């Protein structure tokens, strides 16, 4: 019974903490609705899009970027190498939408070990307007994309971001990635914002260009290996807040493999460990694994049914997650609970991996993240 007195309250506390995070996130989030374009004079916006390689939804995401319902905006596409296969698609899109000002820039400014940030430098410096959005090329922008970003800006804001919401999964492992992105990572990010701990997410970042330029410009984001971590620390250091859009934007996934999920999540885990170690340390407690083990230990000690205990814990963990996804219009299917279970089996190993050194994969390159200097060494992935 001594084990029960220790394990049972700990398990209950972790389950209640996860439920509280879902409630907090639900209060911050809104189901997607259409925001009309501004009736009066609207500020002009530059959208800087770093691109590399062709993905299954590249043509659609490009078309969406040229179809935004905002009076004045420009698109600045950044590609490190002119022979990248995505160049043909970008040029074709620019030709099909001549009414939208758009440029394609080449070059790789090595200001950091972060390939995406290096790719963005030329676009930032070429942006013509005071409001600049750094948007990943796989963000599926709705027509009111800019409206959602601008409406989240407040007097005390230094940066507006959107976490990616996984959609259009093709196959079980893509649904596992939805379980990572949506009801785990997005949920905790919005719960953090509710508690005043907002932090940046690099998928979509709205900056006031004069503000950032007055504090080192885009090159200041090289202070950390992850540009969103550097952005968070810079904005907080100015006494300003990172705000999230009320309805985050989709990232269509298509097909995924277990190896791709592991590679991506291992990289993110390692980056979080290096940039925010105190926040990374308790991540092991965010999934169901720890409360389930504690509940089973308590049940075994007290002579309760282990299968019934497991069912009770899994129900308390996963049904609220499904309710959150349903309420906010995120992807949901009958396979999501098995996908959440697979995710929570991966999480402990991913957490351990985050504390270890060694190379991780970043879009075809083997990268070694240095713990002390928070830098990357880029080597060919086949090396």
Fill in the keyword field for this structure.
single chain, 383 residues, alpha/beta, Spore Coat Polysaccharide Biosynthesis Protein SpsA, Chain A, 2 domains, 7-stranded mixed beta sheet, 3-stranded antiparallel beta sheet, 13 helices, 48% helix, 17% strand, elongated
Mean pLDDT: 91
Unreliable stretches covering 5 or more consecutive residues: 379-383
The radius of gyration over CA amounts to 21 Å
What's the total number of strands?
A: 12
According to CATH, what is the class of the largest domain?
Answer: Alpha Beta
Question: How many distinct domains?
Answer: 2
Helical content class? 40-55%
Measured between the Cα atoms of the first and last residue, the distance is 54 Å
Classify the fold: give the CATH topology of the largest domain: Spore Coat Polysaccharide Biosynthesis Protein SpsA, Chain A
Q: How many helices in DSSP terms? A: 13
The dominant shape is: elongated
Structural class, from secondary structure content?
A: alpha/beta
> What is the CATH homology-level superfamily of the largest domain?
Spore Coat Polysaccharide Biosynthesis Protein SpsA, Chain A
Characterize the main sheet. 7 strands, mixed
Query: Strand order within the widest sheet?
Result: 3-2-1-4-7-5-8
């Amino acid at each position: 019974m001594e084990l029960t007195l220790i394990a049972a309250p700990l398990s209950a506390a972790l389950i209640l903490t996860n439920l509280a995070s879902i409630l907090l996130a639900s209060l911050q989030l809104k189901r997607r609705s259409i925001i009309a374009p501004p009736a009066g004079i609207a500020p002009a916006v530059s959208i800087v899009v770093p691109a590399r390689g062709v993905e299954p939804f590249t043509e659609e995401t490009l078309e969406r970027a040229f179809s935004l319902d905002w009076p004045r905006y420009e698109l600045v596409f950044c590609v490190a190498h002119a022979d990248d296969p995505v160049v043909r698609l970008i040029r074709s899109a620019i030709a099909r939408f001549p009414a939208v000002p758009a440029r394609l820039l080449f070059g790789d400014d090595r200001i950091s070990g972060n390939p995406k940030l290096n790719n963005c430098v030329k676009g930032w410096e070429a942006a013509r307007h005071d409001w600049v959005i750094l948007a990943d090329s796989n963000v599926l922008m709705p027509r009111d994309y800019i409206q959602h970003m601008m409406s989240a800006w407040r007097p005390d804001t230094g940066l507006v971001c959107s976490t990616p919401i996984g959609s259009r999964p093709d196959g079980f492992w893509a649904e596992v990635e939805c379980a990572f992105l949506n009801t785990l990572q997005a949920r905790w990010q919005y719960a953090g914002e509710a508690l005043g701990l907002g932090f940046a997410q690099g998928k979509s970042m709205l900056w006031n260009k004069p503000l950032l330029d007055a504090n080192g410009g885009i090159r200041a984001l090289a202070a950390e290996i992850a540009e969103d971590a550097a952005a968070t620390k810079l904005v907080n250091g100015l006494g300003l807040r990172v705000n999230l859009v009320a309805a985050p934007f989709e990232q269509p996934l298509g097909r995924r493999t277990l190896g791709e999920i592991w590679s991506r999540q291992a990289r993110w885990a390692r980056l979080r460990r290096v940039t925010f170690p105190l926040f990374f340390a308790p991540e092991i407690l965010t999934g169901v694994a720890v409360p389930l083990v504690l509940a089973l230990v308590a049940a075994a000690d007290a002579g309760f049914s282990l299968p019934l205990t497991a069912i009770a814990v899994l129900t308390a963990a996963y049904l609220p997650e499904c309710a959150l996804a349903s309420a906010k219009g995120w992807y949901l299917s009958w396979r999501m609970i098995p996908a959440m279970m697979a995710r929570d089996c991966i999480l402990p190993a991913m957490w351990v991996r985050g504390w270890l050194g060694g190379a991780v994969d970043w879009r075809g390159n083997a990268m070694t993240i240095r713990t002390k200097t928070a830098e990357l060494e880029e080597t060919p992935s086949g090396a």
